[in-house]
Amino acid sequence: MTNSIEVKDLTLNFGAISVLKNMNLDVAEGEFVVLLGPSGCGKSTLLNCLAGLLEITDGQIFIKGKNVTWAEPNERGIGMVFQSYALYPQMTVRGNLSFGLKNAKVPRAEIEAKVARAAEILQIGPLLDRKPAALSGGQRQRVAIGRALVRDVDVFLFDEPLSNLDAKLRSELRVEIKRLHAQLKNTMVYVTHDQIEALTLADRIAVMRGGIIQQLAAPQEIYNRPANLFVAGFIGSPSMNFLHGSTVDGGQAFRLGDLTLSLAAYEGGMIGTRDKVILGLRPEHLLVQETAEPGVTIPATVELDEPMGADSLVWLQAAGTQMSVRVPVERRMAPGTPVHLKVDMAKASLFDATSEIRI
Question: Which of 97, 109, 159, 248 is the most exposed, fewest CB within 10 Å of its CB?
């Protein structure tokens, strides 16, 4: 499969501050890649470098095999959708969609065809003669996407396009964007801090921190096999549970104080005996039961039962730390109830406490 975007050794400095650090990224043709991370991690900065809105310090950027490192934004063959809709308030939807094409001296018949096609794809045909003030937030964002769509480019860049919408609209527009990608099959790079958007939209997710890509993989790979402690803690709501301990018996068991858990089912690398490791357990990979099983359960006490609709989130004190576990919503648990947490070690994550890298 050919690459639509190639980023090679990209570095961006603002004075003495290094914002992007020797970054490499390949995006396959037709792929949907999400740049995910907390505020200040460099995800929007990287997108702006791809768009040509920021001048990089070092490295190269290729789009469709063409070196566009120093090319102007309009020479890169990209369409960009920003966080703010940035629509012209005095123009109708039709005017907003056609404005860039008119400036580019595209023939009128071609403009009309492109606007009609974008309106059909985005289901905004009845809105073409309205002005932005008469549109809802979701409709305005569809128009903003349409403005990029009429350019008929190979690569679309989205900079947190749904962050100004309420939760219901975000969910609806997520579906629209996923449907749009399935229909057009264009390459899309999408920036967000919302892990739900990333997990539902992406073919691959690039989790970023401090200007560095921590892990680039399919959503399920990142969720189930995080490359390091940061990715494990950032992905998942609520976060992964962490237990600090050591490995004993040549890596056959995890020890936490007087508690020992078998690592026989753990699907990881060479464990060996290590003085400091961190065991990561997703809330849905723990089972609450009344009886203890040596080597596979952790004694715990219920602190809070939090119904979430489809299931409940139970918070407990276990092994000197607070832990969370998902249970069926009909199973109510009173605070103070002693229980035992059965660990699904086949789905656990184990990290070296010093390097924070997955073992």
Answer: 109
> Are the C-beta atoms of 247 and 330 separated by less than 8 Å?
no
**Torsions phi, psi for 190 (to 5 deg):** -130, 125
Q: How many CB atoms lie within 10 A of CB 193?
A: 17
CA dist 194 and 213 (Å) reads 17
Task: For each of the domains in the chain, give its residue range(s) and CATH number, in order of start.
Answer: 3-233 (3.40.50.300), 240-352 (2.40.50.140)
Q: How confident is the model at residue 171 (pLDDT cuts 50, 70, 90)?
A: confident
Structure tokens at 292: 């203890």
Q: What is the pLDDT of residues 302-319, one digit of tens each?
A: 999 999 888 999 999 998
Q: Which residues contact 41 (CB under 8 A, 6 or more apart)?
A: 208, 209, 210, 211
Kindly report which listed range (36-45, 95-104, 226-235) carries the lowest average pLDDT score: 95-104
67-96 pLDDT, tens digit per residue, is 999 999 989 999 999 888 788 999 999 999
* Cβ neighbours of residue 2 closer than 8 Å, sequence gap 6 or more: 28, 29, 65
226/220 Cα distance (integer angstroms): 9
